[in-house]
Specification:
The chain is of the alpha/beta class and about 190 residues long. It has a domain at about 1-15 and about 30-80 and about 105-125 and about 140-145. The chain is built from 8 helices and 7 strands. Strands 1, 2, 3, 4, 5, 6 and 7 form a 7-stranded mixed β-sheet that branches. The chain is globular and about 40 Å long.
Length: about 190
């Protein structure tokens, strides 16, 4: 059975769409190891209480949630994952990945996983994708073993710099990444 790490960062408005894809992956037969950033694990927001998301994650995956740096560290040495997905991946996490900062459980999970030359799949969700975060996306597009879920502008009139992955493409993008390929096109039409 293929084991996938599924890491979530704090783009809370996308959680419902992301959880639907976690269910799809589970139904496709993947063993899913859940990882939640410290903020996504602890903060209650207008999109739901943290405990609601914990319970839902455990119910879907049947696995314990990794949510601290010490619990993320063994991912690399133990070669725990065949692939790692970060969805949603915030601009903050994109910047940290692009510059090698590993001060959260998600960024440490990515670093630990990449040491094994296995695919990391990023599904961005950031209001500054076409401004400050653009350089970080460009940088990551050039890194070996890093792939992206195709993304596009989600509200080009109201938020002209914002881009969000099409989360429904996670299964296809994962399949391509496991074969060492980037699902194309990377940039898709606005919704």
């Amino acid at each position: 059975m293929t084991t996938i790490g599924f890491a979530m960062c704090g783009s809370y408005c996308t959680f419902e769409a992301v959880f639907k894809q976690i269910e799809v992956l589970k139904n496709l037969g993947y063993n899913i190891i859940p990882i939640m950033s410290e903020n996504s694990y602890t903060l209650n927001t207008r999109f739901g209480d943290a405990s609601h998301w914990h319970e839902r994650m455990r119910d879907i995956t049947g696995n314990r949630i990794i949510h601290t740096i010490p619990t993320a560290e063994p991912i690399g040495p133990k070669k725990m994952l065949d692939a790692l997905i970060i969805a949603p991946c915030t601009g903050n996490t994109l910047a940290k990945l692009a510059t090698g900062v590993t001060d959260t459980c998600v960024t440490l999970a990515a670093k630990a996983h990449l040491r094994n030359a296995r695919p990391l799949l990023i599904a961005p969700s950031t209001n500054d994708a076409l401004s400050n975060a653009a350089k970080n996306i460009g940088c990551l597009l050039n890194y070996k073993n890093i792939y992206f879920v195709p993304y596009g502008q989600d509200s080009f009139k109201g938020k002209p710099n914002s881009m969000v992955a099409d989360f429904t493409l996670i299964p296809s993008a994962l399949e391509a990444a496991l074969e060492g390929k980037q699902l194309q096109p990377i940039v898709i039409s606005p919704k």
